[in-house]
Input
Amino acid sequence: MKNYDYIFTGSGLAALMTVYKMIQSGNFREKSILLIDENTKKTNDRTWCFWHEGQSTWEHSITKKWDLALFANEAFSRDLELQPYQYNRVKGLDFYNQVFDLISKQKNIDFLNEKVTDINELQTHVYVATETHNFTGEKLFNSIYRKFDVESQTKYPVLQQHFIGWFIKSKEAAFNPAQATFMDFSVEQKGNTRFMYVLPTSTTEALLEYTLFSHDLLAKSEYEDEIQNYITKLGITDYEIIEKEQGSIPMTCYPFWKKNTQRVLNIGTAGGWTKASTGYTFKNSDKKSTALITFLQKEKDFRKFHKQTKFWFYDLLLLDILDRKNELGASIFSSMFKKGSPVLIFKFLDEETSLYEDIKVILKCPKMPFVMALIRSGRYLFQ
Output
């Protein structure tokens, strides 16, 4: 039974970012590392986007950047100047290729394409089993999401950011390739928080995603009917679908960190690394993985890694509102973006604002829903 210093069960975004940065740091060359995942990471299975100032670690994987964004609802639309930020798109396969190109050159790192069947923490090590192999490890990073643990509890709200996207090529020039549509709430809300998200790459090509922040998934036809309606509204009559993608990302402030132990650290979605109020994963995972590399060189007890911040509480208030009155999402986001500074909002969503800046953003939001959520917040903090 082979023993490793570090085992990663699941090799999604967070795991791959962490391993990539372990290699880049040069401080883990003597450590044996194993990644296990049933997915080969050889297909373009998703799209990530993030806003960033200047160059990023993932520059080789970025295939499109936007300097402008659009926010809209049924009553108004606003062009958003993003400087000094740019909005960046990363295709899943490009990211996997960047990471695995570096991993393949490391003699101390193995990748096993199998399903994890058992994880058991013992007194002196962690035991991991797959369909055909058994391993032991000194430390384990788990990114296998335990859906039942989160959705079976009733204390913390759990919503989903769920979507279907079409990458289309049209005969008509219908898109502005310099401007991404961040949120367009002009689509019928139907008692939920629903919007279109559009990433144009040329005047005739774009990814259009029909997206909801809500509890329940829809029938596939409902997403696709809405995409077709939106395409028609854009004046497009002749187009072909090049690619499709779909996903569902949990949005919750469930305290994943309480599952961490001395030897096992939950990362990625399984560790609460997804931004609870927006579902954004890439930027949050980038920051968390960087912090984890620093942590590993100083600490050994994984229970010390999590640091709870004021932003967890802000996210909790929003999710509490959307959990009870899901239809309020459009008015909340619209109030933020109608007159608020886009740069300040993005800085706030990146969890980099001061308390004074937080207040400037929060005061743009409808007051009464947040006052009521604040009154209810004791059930999360003191039970």
